[in-house]
């Protein structure tokens, strides 16, 4: 997969894209990253990319020309005949989720636009972007941090990126519920012990324990996730008991 990131602050990405899993993903050839300062595409001599809003008001608005032209130049160089998805990082966008990350991970090429100032010229939103994404109900100074979140969440889903191909399948939200608790050695840490079932070697019992704990954690912390979840009879019985015990 190829990521192209359009930003006014390319230096913000140097550490993130060249560390940890993202660095290893590039070394394996699973992904490539390119960061472009869209100020380089400004047609005016001062390389200005923003202007005052029509109708007045506070702040400055990102102009369409540099962003349209930067996206067009990148698209022209694409290796695939398929057009890239163009993601606009925006507080008004769709709330980013694991499901959205899985959807984007099936693409060959993503262009991510990081905004600044008061916002974007609406023509960018209506006639260039294919997706608008928000990472939460709050406003940041720019779209760079949100873009990093999207890049990380999508990259780790790509084939051969994680050491264990099953890892991401059991992540919180991938199953529709929060993940079960994890333990490692020692079995007894200062009197705090690992549940016996995890040391039993009985894989059927371990799997049942994990499913039960995953459901319990979701019920206690994110019950909203269970609203549309199809539960087995056993899971319904567990839920019923927990509700009675409250």
Automatic annotation (TrEMBL):
Its EC number is 2.1.1.228. The lineage of its organism: Bacteria, Bacillati, Bacillota, Bacilli, Bacillales. It comes from Fictibacillus aquaticus. GO terms for molecular function: tRNA (guanine(37)-N1)-methyltransferase activity. Homodimer. Residues 1-227 form the tRNA methyltransferase TRMD/TRM10-type domain. The gene is trmD. GO terms for cellular component: cytosol. GO terms for biological process: tRNA N1-guanine methylation. Gene3D superfamilies: 3.40.1280.10, tRNA(m1g37)methyltransferase, domain 2. Pfam families: tRNA_m1G_MT. This is tRNA (guanine-N(1)-)-methyltransferase. InterPro entries: Alpha/beta_knot_MTases (IPR029028), tRNA_m1G_MeTrfase_C_sf (IPR023148), tRNA_m1G_MeTrfase_TrmD (IPR002649), tRNA_m1G_MTases_N (IPR029026), tRNA_MeTrfase_TRMD/TRM10 (IPR016009). Belongs to the RNA methyltransferase TrmD family. It catalyses: guanosine(37) in tRNA + S-adenosyl-L-methionine = N(1)-methylguanosine(37) in tRNA + S-adenosyl-L-homocysteine + H(+). The keyword Cytoplasm applies. It is found in: Cytoplasm. Specifically methylates guanosine-37 in various tRNAs. S-adenosyl-L-methionine binds at residues 115, 135-140. Keywords: Cytoplasm, Methyltransferase, S-adenosyl-L-methionine, Transferase, tRNA processing.
């Amino acid at each position: 997969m190829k990521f192209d990131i359009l930003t006014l602050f390319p230096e913000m990405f140097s550490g993130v894209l060249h560390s940890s899993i993202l660095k290893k993903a590039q070394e394996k050839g699973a992904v490539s990253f390119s960061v472009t300062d869209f100020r380089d595409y400004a047609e005016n001599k001062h390389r200005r990319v923003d202007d005052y809003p029509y109708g007045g008001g506070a702040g400055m608005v990102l102009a369409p020309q540099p962003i349209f032209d930067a996206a067009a130049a990148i698209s022209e160089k694409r290796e695939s005949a398929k057009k890239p998805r163009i993601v606009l990082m925006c507080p008004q966008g769709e709330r980013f989720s694991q499901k959205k990350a899985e959807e984007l991970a099936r693409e060959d090429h993503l262009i991510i636009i990081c905004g600044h100032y008061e916002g974007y010229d609406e023509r960018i939103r209506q006639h260039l972007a294919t997706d608008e994404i928000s990472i939460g109900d709050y406003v940041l100074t720019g779209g760079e941090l949100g873009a990093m979140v999207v890049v990380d969440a999508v990259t780790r889903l790509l084939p051969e990126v994680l050491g264990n191909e099953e890892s991401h399948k059991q992540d919180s939200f991938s199953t529709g519920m929060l993940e079960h608790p994890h333990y490692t050695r020692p079995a007894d840490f200062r009197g705090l012990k690992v549940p016996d079932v995890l040391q039993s070697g009985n894989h059927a019992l371990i799997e049942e324990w994990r499913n039960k704990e995953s459901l319990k954690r979701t019920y206690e912390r994110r019950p909203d996730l269970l609203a549309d979840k199809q539960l087995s009879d056993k899971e319904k019985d567990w839920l019923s008991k927990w509700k009675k015990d409250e």
